[in-house]
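retry 2 of 3: previous attempt timed out while embedding fe (ii) ion. Reduced batch size to 1 and resubmitted. Inputs unchanged:
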Amino acid sequence: MSLRLLHITDSHLYHDPTRVLKGVCTHDSFAAIIADAYRRFPAVDAVILGGDMAQDEQAATYRMLDSMLPHWQAPVMITPGNHAALEHLYGELIPALKAHTGYRDHVQGRHWQIIALNSHQAGHVAGRLPETELARLQQLLSASATTHALIALHHHPIPISSRWMDAIGLENRDELWNIIRRHPQVRALLCGHIHQPLDVMHDGVRVLASPSTCVQFIPCSDTFELAALSPGYRWLDLLPDGVISTGIHRITGIFQSGITRWRPDTLYSCASFIFPVGEELQNSRQRLFLVHITTRQGEVGACLV
Ligand SMILES: [Fe+2]
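retry 2 succeeded.
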């Protein structure tokens, strides 16, 4: 029997639901993502909140996040990011989740084990897995050597050919990979933080990342640069034989305003195919064209250029 997961990450919510981050109202885009995900996937086995859920790190923001989640009747898992107030996460959000939908830091199924790690490092944007988390990972993997394993964390555990992002990834990734190499049942690592999809193999392990529910970053960029792509999330089906079926869904109708420069060279180098469908939209300031993007990994997205 397979397990179905959703990875919803980097919502960067404010307690003021009207606030905008880099041109996107993060409340509205998160609400649209959640609505789309619940409509497409009303029955799931776990929902992973991938970190950076509260941009302002306020207790009220975590309460708002809990109130926005639909009743999936599945445990929520959390991988805290650099934008995280652990006292509010553990004092507000997790108790609320336990009372409503359920909260787990690992899930043990018949064929799969899912482990959520905390790579939050107070005062730093880059991540680090503390000794306690590394020991917990080691213990969980050793206790369930016969089931496939997926490890989730916020910070990316491999370089992604993006100089500015690679400077703020997981600092002690070698320690993580040393543990993984001793446990061949690990099939995948799943991260947030990079605000873009990723699906590559590293040391025989699949490394996946997901778009943000708000602003998107341009892949393979040396410097911080925003992509004119709509918010999205990832679904995953963990099959009994260890195979992972996965894809991205992006919503339409929310995009980063103010981005008028399109970089097809970047998109071509980091995606595989682009199919403009030529649906012209109008707004008060500029003419925009809706295009759909399909990558080799099967992503179907939309952006306005
Ligand atoms: Fe983020």
